[in-house]
Amino acid sequence: MDRKSVKVVVAGGFGTGKTTLVGSVSEIPPLTTEEVLTQASVGVDDTTGVEGKTSTTVALDFGRITITSDVVLYLFGTPGQDRFWFIWDELAQGAVGAIVLVDTRRLGTSFPAIDYFERRGIPFVAAVNRFFGECLYSEEEIRTALKLDPNVPLLWCDARDRSSSKKALIELVRHAMARLPVST
Amino acid sequence: MTYDIWDGDDDGEAGRLVPLYILVNGRTTPRNTNLDLATQVIALPADTSRLEQEYREIMNRCSGWISIAEIGAYLHRPLTITKVMVDVLLEQGFLGIGAPAQRKIADRRLLETVLAGLERL
Description:
The complex is a heterodimer of chains A (184) and B (121).
Chain A: E1 4-12, H1 18-25, E2 31-38, E3 55-66, E4 71-77, H2 85-92, E5 97-102, H3 111-120, E6 124-129, H4 139-146, E7 154-157, H5 162-178
Parallel strand pairs in A: 1-4, 1-5, 5-6, 6-7
Antiparallel strand pairs in A: 2-3, 3-4
Chain B: H1 20-23, E1 40-43, H2 53-61, E2 66-67, H3 68-75, H4 79-91, E3 95-97, H5 108-120
Antiparallel strand pairs in B: 1-2, 1-3
Protein name (chain A): ATP/GTP-binding protein
Keywords (chain A): GTP-binding, Hydrolase, Nucleotide-binding
Family (chain A): Belongs to the GPN-loop GTPase family.
């Protein structure tokens, strides 16, 4: 059947505004789905301090945008805890790409996400969330601090603002298209 | 495997006592490995009266196209269980499936459609 799903991943460290961004452009209030992590992941995930637990629940927030009668875009926020990489793998598989939210007060929280998408060759844009107040750094300074590849778009956004989040999405799709091989 | 769906009667006064993994015959992964959390499904015309309540709840959510992630969210079921249950319903012809999310998006026309849709928002 010709019903297509398109995925976009919204990543960034804890508290960078992922769910806020999802909520600002989604046509439904963000939903939460849960993945249960069981014993099988012990040794893979860091379970220090929670040795007695046999399962952990990881919550995923997501939203949707109906593009046409056949195409729906799903926006998935990555889990708050960086260590659940197998969930990132599931989210990223087949995704158009990712928006990595950046909080300039805590640039380091965005490193794991940038590293993740870079290594896998998944298109992404870095979006500095202005929600946290005036940014004291120039684009160049942020690029340098994040060690961003010159080809990766860096933009400013306010995750609470629908049109701003929309712009970030558009930028990502354009970037993903630019990286496609020339069509035959 | 004769029964893919639990067919016993255990709805006592205390409610269901069967754990969810029994409902999926102890399966831990769907057979259809293309099932993605964003894959959309839809109910096909079928008699659902013999389905277990948990499966019927899924069917009731699928009168229009809906993703596996949404089904899990609305029914408060873990994603993996939802995926396996949807897979069972697909196998038995209760649900139809949309295009799986592609492994590598290299579909320029699809991206153009998405871009145009976003610009219209």
